[in-house]
Amino acid sequence: MVTYAISPPKQAHLDVAGSDDKFPVRRIYCIGKNYVAHIKEMNQDERDPPVIFMKPADALVPNGGEIPYPVFTNNFHYECELVVALKSGGYNIPQSEASKHIFGYAVGLDMTRRDHQAAALAKGLPWEVTKGFDHSAPVGPISRVEETGVMSNGHVRLEVNGEVRQDADISLLIWKIDEIIAKLSEQHKLTAGDIIMTGTPAGVGAVVTGDVLDCSVDGLEPMQVRIGGPAA
Q: Which of 155, 201, 197, 148 minimizes the C-alpha distance to 177?
């Protein structure tokens, strides 16, 4: 029996749609620059490969709800995207085998301190300060792949206070889901419990305290997030 010097942190998890089961989350992999229109709105080169970065598992906010406006930013942005949850993994997964490792799918938000992202990009610095902060990864319930089928299309949609801001089809992903899984497994040993945020379409923008974000992907459980007051 292991005795810890301090109380261990709680296991990060997500709900599973239609079930009392919980999906334990090990790592959150994120893919940037994966829709051409978003690359253009960020003034980046669409010929560059998507960027791979990570968020800590304790940044998850299961099912949305209220999240505080974070410290250390004055330009807090939403990025709505499809999330893929893995039931297995490994190194160097062939693209043709990638879908066999999928547990299910969810809608998620890659919340971003945009002001600090611009500074990091300009100086070639790491992205943790802009992407890996508290409450930066709201994710809805996971729908099992047995219910959805392997997803290759479906609209990603986000409304802010009832106004549509993002609306694009996941068929427009530059790197498709099987390619993402194969590429990630070249660099990391993927395992059960990993989730992948697959990239956001065009239409990203800032939110402020009081804003309500409604996020959806066709065929999946929707998620609503409210922006609360400053983080204490």
A: 197
Per-residue pLDDT tens for 98-152?
999 999 999 999 999 999 988 888 888 888 999 999 999 999 999 999 999 999 9
DSSP 180: H
The number of helix segments (H) and strand segments (E) in the chain equals 5, 18
Alpha carbon separation from 229 to 69, 122, 209 (Å, rounded): 6, 30, 6
Rounded Cα distance between 67 and 139, Å, is: 12
Amino acid at 199: G
Domain boundaries, the chain: 13-230
Which of these, 183, 173, 167, lies nearest to 152 by C-alpha position?
Answer: 173
Q: Is residue 160 a contact partner of residue 85, using CB atoms and an 8 Å limit? A: no
DSSP string, 100-168: GGEEEEEEEE--EEHHHHHHHHHHT--SHHHHSSTT-EEE-PBEEHHHH-S-S--EEEEEETTEEEEEE
Model confidence pTM above 0.90: yes
Cα dist. 189→23, 89, 183, 222 in Å? 19, 7, 11, 30
Identify the CATH class of 13-230.
alpha beta
Tokens of 70: 């974070």
pLDDT for position 37: 72
- Cα 232 to Cα 221: distance, rounded to the nearest angstrom: 30
pLDDT tens digits, 44-85: 766 566 789 999 999 999 999 999 999 999 999 999 999 999
**What is the distance between the alpha carbons of residues 84 and 171, in angstroms, rounded to a whole number?**
15
